[in-house]
């Protein structure tokens, strides 16, 4: 469940400008503010089922946007590449420090 929530939050970050104001409000309250369906339904004076249906439809739309635009996928690839480069720099620095220590021991 946490993985789904994290994924939806990322998709929402990337594609929220493509949603209607009502969809944005429901998604913000449900996923970002952790409101329950009942709390959202009371806030907007609609049925709990209407909120549920809207959120599920919006989730589906976000997944469709991702299938077409791949913004989240590209983001994950960039993050992976950045981490790879950071690890490589860290490894190189450790090797450099080790080499310098060896040089100091020789002196």
Automatic annotation (TrEMBL):
Presence of keyword Signal: no
Keyword match Nuclease: no
Pfam families cross-referenced by the UniProt entry: UPF0122 (PF04297)
Domain of life, source organism: Bacteria
Keywords (A to Z) from UniProt: Coiled coil, DNA-binding
Residue ranges crossing the lipid bilayer per the database entry: none
MF-aspect GO terms: DNA binding
Chain segments annotated as coiled-coil in the UniProt record: 48-75
InterPro entries: RNA_pol_sigma_r3/r4-like (IPR013324), UPF0122 (IPR007394), UPF0122_fam_protein (IPR054831), WH-like_DNA-bd_sf (IPR036388)
Family the UniProt entry places it in: Belongs to the UPF0122 family.
Biological role: Might take part in the signal recognition particle (SRP) pathway. This is inferred from the conservation of its genetic proximity to ftsY/ffh. May be a regulatory protein.
Name of protein: UPF0122 protein MUN89_14125
Species lineage: Bacteria, Bacillati, Bacillota, Bacilli, Bacillales
């Amino acid at each position: 469940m946490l993985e789904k929530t994290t994924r939806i939050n990322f998709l929402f970050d990337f594609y929220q400008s493509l949603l209607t104001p009502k969809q944005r409000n429901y998604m913000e309250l449900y996923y970002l503010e952790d409101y329950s369906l009942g709390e959202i339904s009371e806030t907007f004076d609609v049925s709990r089922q209407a909120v549920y249906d809207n959120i599920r439809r919006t989730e589906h739309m976000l997944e469709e946007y991702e299938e077409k635009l791949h913004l989240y996928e590209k983001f994950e690839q960039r993050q992976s590449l950045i981490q790879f480069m950071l690890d490589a720099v860290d490894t190189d620095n450790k090797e450099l420090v080790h080499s310098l220590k060896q040089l100091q021991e020789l002196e």
